[in-house]
Automatic annotation (TrEMBL):
Keywords: Amino-acid biosynthesis, Hydrolase, Methionine biosynthesis. It is an enzyme of class 3 (hydrolase). SUPFAM superfamilies: HAD-like (SSF56784). One of its GO terms (molecular function) is 2-hydroxy-3-keto-5-methylthiopentenyl-1-phosphate phosphatase activity. The keyword ATP-binding does not apply. This is 2-hydroxy-3-keto-5-methylthiopentenyl-1-phosphate phosphatase. The keyword Magnesium does not apply. It comes from Collibacillus ludicampi. Gene3D superfamilies: 3.90.1470.20, HAD superfamily/HAD-like. Pathway: Amino-acid biosynthesis; L-methionine biosynthesis via salvage pathway; L-methionine from S-methyl-5-thio-alpha-D-ribose 1-phosphate: step 4/6.
Length: 225
């Protein structure tokens, strides 16, 4: 009997076609945010530090404008609804593991995913500027300042209990990818998986992911016969 599959799916640039933090910063970010972004991608500062500083420059009173902008501009990658339907049909647990922020991630995903299946960073608008909260920070096995620590979330679900599948696109998915049984990757994450020989499948839409999952299911049936 095969292990159950469990999917940990990134949000920015994966579920959405564009990274929504970058999109929001292009519209609302203050001077200097681009350098913070480059420092994060190059590993010079942690994700927690970089993202926290980016949003700390934006007045809290701009919250509603940002939410409306995010909902209006976010484009969901093709095949997402079909993948969710397939997961429900096959009993595959689908979790969103997002380095994005709750106040725009959850409104965008509310038509698709139950809130209790979404892991993301939090926010506080009680001060003059936006303060980012980190409810899913690094555990005792990680000190990378991940913000939302995807490896820590994967560790909540033991490797003996399920085949852990990571779907992602960027540097924020890399640590989780190294722990996964298999990775569906695009963009920078795809390059890193190729360089390090991490078991992976490239994807462009979520239909690609469904086709591979169906193929695996057929292979399991063949073995069972």
């Amino acid at each position: 009997m095969r292990k159950k599959w469990m999917i940990f799916c990134d949000f920015d640039g994966t579920i959405t076609e564009r990274d929504m933090i970058i999109s929001i910063m292009e519209k609302f970010g203050r001077p200097g945010w681009e350098m913070l972004k480059e420092d994060v991608l190059a590993g010079r500062i942690s994700v927690e530090s970089g993202v926290g500083q980016m949003f700390a420059q934006i007045p809290s009173e701009e919250k509603e404008q940002i939410v409306k902008y995010a909902q209006k501009t976010a484009k969901i990658r093709s095949g997402f609804k079909e993948l969710l339907q397939y997961c429900r049909q096959e009993g595959i647990l689908f979790l969103v593991t997002s380095g994005g922020i709750d106040f725009f991630v959850k409104p965008i995903l509310s038509p698709y995913v139950d809130e209790n299946r979404i892991f993301c960073n939090g926010s506080d608008f009680s001060g003059e500027t936006i303060r980012i909260l980190w409810p899913y920070g690094c555990d005792e096995h990680c000190d990378g300042g991940c913000g939302l620590c995807k490896p820590a979330i994967l560790r909540r679900y033991g490797a003996n209990d399920a085949k852990r599948i990571v779907i992602g696109d960027s540097i924020t998915d890399w640590k989780a990818a190294q722990m996964a049984d298999h990775v569906f990757a695009r963009s920078l994450l795809l390059e890193k998986c190729r360089e390090s020989a991490i078991p992976h499948t490239p994807f462009h839409t979520f239909i690609d992911v469904i086709e591979t999952l169906k193929q695996w299911e057929e292979e399991c049936k063949e073995v069972a016969r």
